[in-house]
Amino acid sequence: MDILIYGTVNSVIYALIAVGFTLVYGVSRIPNFAHGSIYVLVGFLTWTFLKNLHIPYGIAIVLSLFLATLIGLIIYRLVLIRLRGLPTSEIIASFAVSLIILEGLRMQGIAGFKGFIGPFYMLPPFVDGKVRILGVFVDYQRIIIVAACFALVVLLWVFTHYTKMGLSLRAIAQDEHAAMMLGIHSDRTAMTALSVGSALAGLAAVLILPLGNITAEMGYKVLIYALAVCIIGGLGSWAGAVLASFVIGFAMKISTALFGAMWESVVLVGTIILILLLKPSGLLGKQKELEERV
Fold it and tell me: What is the domain count for the chain?
């Protein structure tokens, strides 16, 4: 029962981490390698607002998410807009932005770069305490994460199906040239996607980081998890990302229960290789899109 409960929770966490990356790539075809650094930056900003400036928790979160949205917009307008259509350059540029952010935090002495592991850089949980579910104790923060993720999926579905901007995002994702012929501005839509994707990375941070310390290495781990989910699910496929999150979440939880936490990375890479050998386009990816990328 422990595997079922915590496998589900871990799967939802991976989905929450990857949803912003999937949105950006699905709309703009830009692999945003700054995704993980924005995640860490939002956590650090929220901690700073809360602990140093003594701003109420809710307002600190709102301010951090606003700044994350603004950072995504700036990254696109100053860097990525000039490189669209050049996949290698997009990867290098966005990863360079990631390094700048993480190295900047290192210069400020954020935990994780100098071997410091402690409660200093840690967001408080929204609600303290635990509840027993099917004989397994689960803390309230994890329950909040699961509830928030499902609410987010519903909100994103409503946004992409019933709002003008959401419909524009779907149109660009499905056929950019046809959407442009209908008057949809490609660059503006891609910029919106990157801004929303950055906000989603920040939302994942403020929900997940109360479970542990804020360390710079998390930026790289989050990027790896997001890439793994998107590759296994099929690049740009939201449904594939959700399915891949559960595949990875349960695979890693089962491996941890059987062999120990040291095998998590091996299982993650092995799962990616196995899925790509069986279906190179990913679980719900389209073979035609794969051939076009190749």
Answer: 1
**Domain for residue 162, yes or no?**
yes
Among 264, 133, 150, 144, CA closest to 210: 144
- Which DSSP symbol is given to 284? S
Whether residue 234 is contained in a domain is answered as no
Mean pLDDT by 10 residues, the chain (294 residues): 86 92 88 93 91 91 96 92 87 93 77 48 87 86 93 90 86 82 84 93 94 86 91 84 91 85 82 86 67 43
Owning domain of residue 198:
2-219
Per-residue pLDDT, 62: 96
Q: Measured in whole angstroms, how far is the alpha carbon of residue 241 from the centre of its chain? A: 11
DSSP conformation letters of 73-115: HHHHHHTGGGTTT-HHHHHHHHHHHHHHHHHHHHHTT-TTSSS
On whether the CB atoms of residues 269 and 217 are closer than 8 A, the answer is: no
Q: Classify residue 293 as exposed, middle or buried by CB count within 10 Å of its CB (0-12, 13-18, 19+).
A: exposed
